[in-house]
Design goal:
about 110 residues; mainly alpha; 5 helices; about 45% helix
């Protein structure tokens, strides 16, 4: 099998969007146990850093889930600019990412490794 090496400059030019998504997707998943759909549809109205909870509305069984926020996520949410209604909006549209879109970006990133 032939291996190929990527230069750092080539990687950084090809991964900015994937790295941005990884910056928020992995910490959210690991610190909350939230499902991808719940994270993608999370709005600022559903994040309460003062009381330390997230209200997940788009759940698997359509029941509202109250998810505790740890100190790491509370600090993280405090540093995110609140430019759109959604907590993690698509850079181009301001709407939530689709699961299909996330999977495409993930697969593109895997091909580069």
């Amino acid at each position: 099998m032939m291996s190929r090496k990527l230069r750092k400059s080539k990687i950084s030019n090809r991964l900015p969007l994937s790295q941005t998504i990884g910056d928020w997707l992995f910490p959210m998943t690991l610190n909350t146990g939230m499902r991808l759909r719940e994270i993608l549809h999370l709005t600022w109205d559903n994040v309460d850093c003062i009381n330390g909870v997230i209200m997940a509305l788009h759940t698997k069984n359509n029941k509202v889930r109250e998810i505790p926020i740890n100190s790491l996520l509370s600090e993280y949410f405090g540093n995110i600019p609140k430019k759109a209604a959604f907590t993690f909006p698509c850079v181009r549209t301001g709407e939530p990412y689709t699961i299909h879109g996330i999977m495409c970006m993930f697969n593109r990133a895997l091909k580069l490794v």
